[in-house]
């Protein structure tokens, strides 16, 4: 199960994406790595990883 910090950060980041009119393609919790993974953007070019302690990292791929 995701931690409380991960869930809160996921909610905040999804709200920010929504406010910027970015579609959210996928939200997945990876049990082995204990990370939440979000793919967003019309082309799926925004990737966000939320770690167990609530820190997060994003990558934007150019197409």
Structure description:
The chain has 63 residues and is α+β, with helices and mostly antiparallel strands. It has one domain. The protein contains 1 helix and 4 strands, in the order αββββ. The radius of gyration is 11 Å and the shape is globular. The N and C termini lie far apart (34 Å). The model has no long low-confidence stretch (mean pLDDT 95).
Indicate the proportion of strand residues: 35-45%
Gross geometry: globular
Q: Looking at the chains present, what oligomeric state does this protein adopt? A: single chain
Number of strands: 4
Order of adjacent strands in the largest pleated sheet: 1-2-3-4
> What is the H/E order?
HEEEE
**Largest pleated sheet:** 4 strands, antiparallel
Task: Describe what is shown at a glance.
The chain has 63 residues and is α+β, with helices and mostly antiparallel strands. It has one helix at 4-19; strands spanning 24-30, 35-40, 46-50, 56-60.
Chain-wise SSE layout:
Elements: H1 4-19, E1 24-30, E2 35-40, E3 46-50, E4 56-60
Antiparallel strand pairs: 1-2, 2-3, 3-4
Provide keyphrases for this structure.
63 residues, 37% strand, four-stranded antiparallel beta sheet, alpha+beta, 1 helix
């Amino acid at each position: 199960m995701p931690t409380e910090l991960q869930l809160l950060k996921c909610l905040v980041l999804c709200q920010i994406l929504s406010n910027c009119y970015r579609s959210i393609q996928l939200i997945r919790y990876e049990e082995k790595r204990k990370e939440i993974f979000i793919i967003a953007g019309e082309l799926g070019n925004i990737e966000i990883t939320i770690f167990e302690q609530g820190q997060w990292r994003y990558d934007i791929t150019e197409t």
